[in-house]
Amino acid sequence: MADVVSIWRMRALAAVVVCCWPAVLAAADFPVAIDNCGVSQTYSAAPKRAVAMNQSAAEIMLTLGLQVRMAGTAYLDDAVLPELGAAYRRIPVVAAKYPSREGLLGIQPDFVYATFASAFATMRLVRGRV
Questions:
Q1: pLDDT tier at 12 (50, 70, 90 boundaries)?
Q2: CB of 7 within 8 A of CB of 102?
Q3: What is the mean predicted confidence (pLDDT) over 1-22?
């Protein structure tokens, strides 16, 4: 049963992958509801264990000062911006490319953020479902 709950949780997290992180954190009051691509997700609190699925997502999060809320990052494909290097080195790298579905679930994220839909291709993401 726990695996089913985890899968549904991951589906809900993946539904708001692109561009929602700043909106969730900017909310003064929770719960906050985000609608993205026809999928609604409600957050009762700001995420605490976020995973950035690719370098650009990680750099956006770090630029926003969110490193204390990051449980991991993946897919470094270029040099990290020098001003973000120290913060980036403190974030666990969970995979050289994209993590597997099982690897991602094992981190127990409460938010997954990517800047490319391809980050979820290996998980068979279809309109917010893993």
A1: very low
A2: no
A3: 47
- Residue 73 β-bridge partners: 52, 93
Nearest Cα to Cα of residue 47 among 80, 22, 77, 69: 69
Three-state SS for 130?
coil
A 10 A CB-CB count for 1 gives 5
In whole angstroms, what is the distance from residue 48 CA to residue 36 CA?
21
Cβ pair 87, 62 in contact under 8 A: yes
Write down all domains in the chain, each with its CATH number in brackets.
Answer: 2-123 (3.40.50.1980)
Instruction: Render pLDDT for 57-70 as a digit per residue (tens, 0 to 9).
Output: 999 999 999 999 99
pTM metric for this prediction: 0.72
